[in-house]
Write a structure and sequence with these properties.
540 residues, alpha/beta, Glucose Oxidase, domain 1, Enzyme I, Chain A, domain 2, TIM Barrel, 3 domains, eight-stranded mixed sheet
């Protein structure tokens, strides 16, 4: 019988074969409705539900273990935020019943996080919080009905933190129709060594009882597949105590900095400063910025700390910046383009970072996001050099700047490639559209060719080059980047060890061979397969 293959994004290095168990959807919430007029009663009902869901989260956090504990703690803080409750009360005043009011208020909060891949996959978790409060109010159970014995691959749209905390020992594999490589499902499956394939649209057709092979290394699910059909994972064998290029960590908060310092990261490759301001209704004072930056810089792992100035836009609004409404936010006023109307804040950021640099004694590099022309790069470099003693750079995220790197010689000290946005603009594919996920695969030959050109032009111009996009978290792709000639990569902190291991298993010449194998591929699957084959040969 011909096997059917379903494509997705793999999580983990081990494959598993087991029977499909489709997770049943919970009872739907009632449609949005108005209350009878007793605002006080609705408010009391809402407060009780919030407190009860908060207690449930604490119980689930204990069941879920260490990896989820921080996520549940963060969700608990959001749930108990008084500003969120006040926003819900305002909805009650508008006549909405308690459950609808909380869902509406949480939706407004979720919209503030849209537009950035770091937050986008957290939005589902936030909406799940609202759903749980509303379900509590209406007496609806959201518990998963999972088997306790046997071995099953569970299939669902996606799984929230509360869902994954209910995984039983019978769950040996996971397939989700939605989600992505940084979704909570992916994080938990990776931490628990549960093979998974996420963003697998074809899984909609899977039936209970079918035998499937979950093959994460092959980014696929094989209906009727066996263990013999699984794609073999590369076993990286260290040839050196140090990777061929430094591996840094991405951070966005003090907590991230502390956690990154516990890894083997050689500094920070991307500090996302906008994470500090997503709910700020008033502009932070210079003093407050200095305090925050000093704490974070001091906590970071040893090595250079690359700080990105605020990357906000109408699709990722920071309240105090009062961003305009735009029909196409991805092509609108975002990143360094804020300098037109908010120059003072960007300057204050740079001044605060200089004061924090002096106070912490750390080596700080600053870079601007969404730079499209050499003229914009020169403008930012002028602002940064006037503000402090930094190495100055830009993010390469737009195709236009790729062709102007030669003009950046003597203008910037470094560039850092944001592969998420570069892919979006290179392929004219909205990165938030689940139907276009394949176009944003870092193994796409056109992206590999573009990344190679960036590395070559940077070397010619004497400019340090790094990659801080999600592609740097893929150990095999990190080797490809080293083979192109990039000077460093930055990954999510959870992947620092795996990426270092991969980059310690090859020489510069061998990394070049892996890159040359990948760039000869005609599509993303072939490019990845050729690269992995070459890595396998090297490992022998």
């Amino acid at each position: 019988m011909t096997q059917q293959v379903l494509s997705g994004l793999g999580v983990g290095l081990e494959a598993v074969t087991a029977e499909v168990f489709r997770v049943r959807q919970a009872e739907p919430l009632p449609i949005p409705a108005k209350h009878s007029g007793d605002v006080a009663a609705e408010q009391a009902k809402l407060r009780k539900a919030v407190d009860e869901v908060s207690s449930e989260l604490e119980i689930l956090a204990e069941k879920a273990g260490e990896t989820s504990a921080e996520i549940f703690e963060a969700l608990g803080m959001i749930l108990l935020d008084e500003s969120l409750f006040d926003a819900s009360v305002a909805q009650l005043d508008d006549g909405w019943e308690a459950g609808t009011a909380f869902v509406n208020a949480m939706e407004t909060f979720a919209e503030l996080l849209s537009g950035d891949p770091t937050f986008e996959e957290r939005i589902a978790d936030i909406r799940d919080l609202a759903k749980r409060v509303a379900a509590n109010i209406h007496g609806i159970s959201l518990g998963l009905d999972l088997p306790e014995t046997g071995k099953f691959v569970i299939v669902g749209e996606d799984f929230s933190p509360a869902d994954t905390a209910q995984f039983t020992s019978a769950v040996v594999g996971v397939i989700t129709i939605q989600g992505g490589p940084t979704s909570h499902t992916a994080i938990i499956c990776r931490s628990k060594s549960i093979p998974a394939v996420v963003s697998c649209s074809g899984a909609k057709e899977l039936k209970d009882g079918q035998m499937v092979l979950v093959d994460p290394v092959g980014d696929r699910v094989v209906i009727g597949g066996t263990a013999a059909d699984a794609t073999k994972a590369i076993s990286f064998v260290a040839k050196s105590t140090e990777p061929v290029i430094p591996v840094r960590s991405n951070i966005g908060s003090l907590e991230d900095a502390v956690a990154a310092a516990a890894t083997a990261a050689e500094g920070v490759g991307l500090f996302r400063t906008e994470l500090l301001y997503l709910s700020a209704s008033t502009e932070p004072t210079l003093e407050r910025q200095i305090q925050s930056y000093t704490e974070i810089l001091t906590a970071c792992p040893e090595g250079p700390i690359v700080v990105r100035t605020i990357d906000a836009g109408s699709d990722k609004p920071v309240p105090f910046l009062k961003m305009p409404d735009e029909e196409n936010p991805a092509l609108g006023v975002r990143g360094f383009r804020l300098v037109r109307d908010h120059r003072d804040f960007i300057v204050s950021q740079l001044e605060a970072l200089e004061a924090a640099r002096k106070a912490s004694g750390r080596e700080v590099w600053v870079m601007a996001p969404m730079v499209a022309t050499a003229g914009e790069a020169k403008e930012f470099a002028s602002l940064a050099k006037a503000a402090g003693q930094f190495k100055v750079g830009i993010m390469v995220e737009t195709p236009s700047i790729v062709y102007e790197i030669s003009k950046l010689k003597g203008v910037v000290d470094f560039i850092s490639v944001g592969t998420n946005d570069l892919s979006q603009y290179l392929f004219a594919s909205d990165r938030m559209n689940p139907n276009l996920g394949a176009m944003l695969n870092p193994w796409q030959p056109a992206l590999i060719a573009s990344l190679n050109q960036i590395a070559i032009e940077s070397k010619k111009a004497g400019i340090y080059s790094g990659v801080c996009g999600e592609s740097g978290s893929d150990p095999a792709f990190a080797v490809v980047l080293a083979g192109m000639g990039y000077d460093s990569v930055s990954s999510s902190r959870s992947q620092v060890g795996a990426v270092r291991s991969a980059l310690s298993s090859v020489t510069h010449d061998e990394a070049r061979e892996v890159f040359e194998a990948a760039i000869s591929g005609h599509d993303s699957d072939e490019a990845k397969s050729l690269a992995l084959t070459k890595l396998g040969e090297i490992a022998k």
